[in-house]
Design brief:
By secondary structure, the chain is an alpha/beta fold. The chain is 55% helix and 10% strand. 38% of the residues are buried. The structure holds adenosine-5'-triphosphate and magnesium ion.
């Protein structure tokens, strides 16, 4: 966050004031804004000229929507520090929150007068100007009520989520091809907790809060979430990280809060955090250093705090996270145990691919199809690949009929043609993540002698064992011998039989 509460502004010579101020800063970091406000107030009592304390209290007030108090504090900062460019900037944000756009514009301009290189004020001003040029805006303050009906798209304005879209799905578990074990696990961990919490409670079972789905792309993580929604009749909120994270004061926290609040009002509800590895800090240099790292941290903190709230009253709410690279997830999220169970959603094996072809063509007029051969020809393909291949294959005879006027069934040759054309998408993904997992031997010449250095993948032994199934899949699919064998099977099925 730009307005880092730790940022040294005009300090104090009073050590006691400094101490409570620091404590309040920690509370602020933990998103305990009301407590932080109390702390800053104490610091101000001890040193009534403590500009930084006023400044941070103004931020905290603004976040909890107490704009009058926030304004007073920001004005006090300007009295104490007439040259401060931050105080007018915060005034701008407050006025913008209050929808006084003309006032906000003046404050941003003032901040820029004091510091012409003030990027954030500049960005905010540009955004505001664009908004003021637009014709009358639709009021979207009140979120759209659902209960059964689809709501509109999620509405985000100036980095703040105004209303949340609830998805309703007709997909059932019977629509999921393969994955018997996963279905069982998910039935026990999620479906029962939503549909029959009293049954679990009768046996003294704690209701789970969340699970994490991990696995290669296109293999059914999102599809599973929709099936759970359909199976339990829940609303599903797809919480897109890029809609939640915003660089301006307090928006990220507000957005997360809004999502959880909406979920609580519309139970049973599943909140789905797709690409949850994008939230928080990645291990190797995710984000661009200080700034973004900071509000990512705020997001993780707020998320954990919202989860705590649910832990006290878990009925009807379930959180699902999904990631392709679980080892890149923020350690705080993993450690917290909030995502109790991690469930691997694997790429389809021979039998599953065969079933997938049958499932995806069930409504098509088919000639004689050798499903076993189709499955062999798509070794290493994802479920998404197969769904898309089936869909596109149907276009071949359709386009033909359009030209010739003659109707015919969909034939084996159509599928084979489309498989060749489409190809599989997993291979590229495996070679991309290989470096994270597989140890690599590098040869260097030191003093004329050859030296071999083994470079470790970035997974800890713990992670290697926790995500073993995925690790093995990545290893097998990066192993040159296994890869070429698979390729041979695929080519033989495509071109011979
Ligand atoms: N088990 C399954 N049964 C039937 N169809 C499936 C299954 N898994 C995936 N599909 C099909 O593949 C498509 C892509 O799957 P999905 O979007 O769930 O992948 P994902 O794991 O979420 O991928 P990503 O990591 O890229 O988000 C689905 O829309 C669906 O058509
Ligand atoms: Mg997905």
């Amino acid at each position: 966050m730009a307005e880092n509460p730790d940022q040294p502004k005009k300090g104090t010579n009073n050590p006691a004031a400094k101490e409570v101020y620091t404590k309040a800063g920690n509370l602020f970091e933990e998103n305990k804004f009301d407590e932080a406000i109390e702390g800053y107030s104490q610091a101000i009592k001890l040193d009534p000229k403590y500009a930084s304390a006023y400044f941070n209290r103004a931020l905290a007030f603004a976040i909890v929507n107490k704009y009058d108090e926030a304004t007073k504090d920001a004005q006090r900062v300007m009295e104490l520090e007439p040259e401060s460019h931050d105080a007018p900037y915060v005034m701008g944000i407050i006025e913008e929150y209050k929808k006084n756009y003309t006032g906000a514009k003046r404050w941003y301009e003032r901040a820029l007068e004091l510091n012409p290189k003030y990027e954030q004020a500049r960005a905010r001003l540009d955004q505001l100007k664009a908004k003021m040029d637009r014709p009358i805006e639709k009021e979207t303050e009140e979120p759209i009520k659902v209960n059964g009906k689809q709501s509109e798209e999620t509405v985000v304005e100036d980095g703040q989520i105004k209303s949340v879209k609830f998805h309703r799905s007709n997909i059932k578990f019977s629509d999921i091809v393969g994955m018997k074990k996963q279905k069982e696990l998910i039935h026990q961990n999620i479906v029962l907790a939503i549909k029959k919490p009293e049954l679990l409670r009768a046996y003294g079972k704690r209701l789970g809060l969340g699970v994490l789905f991990y696995g290669p792309p296109g293999c059914g993580k999102t599809y599973f979430v929709n099936a759970i929604g359909g199976e339990t009749g829940s609303n599903v909120i797809i919480a897109a990280i890029n809609e939640i994270i915003d660089m301006y004061a307090g928006n990220t926290e507000k957005n997360l809060h809004r999502i959880f609040e909406q979920a609580r009002k519309n139970t049973p509800c599943i909140i789905f955090f797709d690409e949850v590895d994008a939230m928080g800090g990645k291990r190797d240099g995710g984000g661009d250093g200080g700034g973004s790292q900071n509000f990512m941290r705020m997001a993780v903190n707020q998320f954990l705090q919202e989860m705590d709230g649910i832990e006290k009253n878990p009925e009807g709410i379930f959180i699902i996270g999904a990631t392709n690279q679980p080892w890149d997830m923020d350690p705080a999220l993993k450690r917290s145990g909030r995502f109790g169970e991690s469930i691997y959603i694997p790429p389809p094996d021979y039998k599953t691919r065969k079933q997938a072809f049958m499932y995806n063509t069930r409504k098509m007029p088919l000639g004689r199809i050798n499903f076993g051969r189709l499955s062999r020809a798509t070794i290493g393909f994802s479920q998404a690949d197969i769904a898309e291949i089936c869909d596109k294959t149907a276009l071949i005879p359709a386009a033909e009929e359009d030209m010739t006027g003659r109707r015919r069934k969909i034939l084996m040759k159509d599928f084979l043609k489309m498989i060749k054309q489409h190809g599989g998408t997993l291979e590229a993904w495996y070679s991309m993540v290989k470096k994270d997992i597989v140890n690599k031997t590098e040869t260097t010449i030191v003093d004329g002698k050859k030296q071999e250095i083994v470079k470790e993948g970035k997974l800890s032994p713990e992670e290697k064992s926790k995500y073993k199934a995925l690790v093995n899949d990545v290893k097998n699919n990066s192993n040159i011998v296994i890869k070429s064998l698979k390729k041979a099977i695929q080519l033989f099925s495509l071109y011979v039989a």
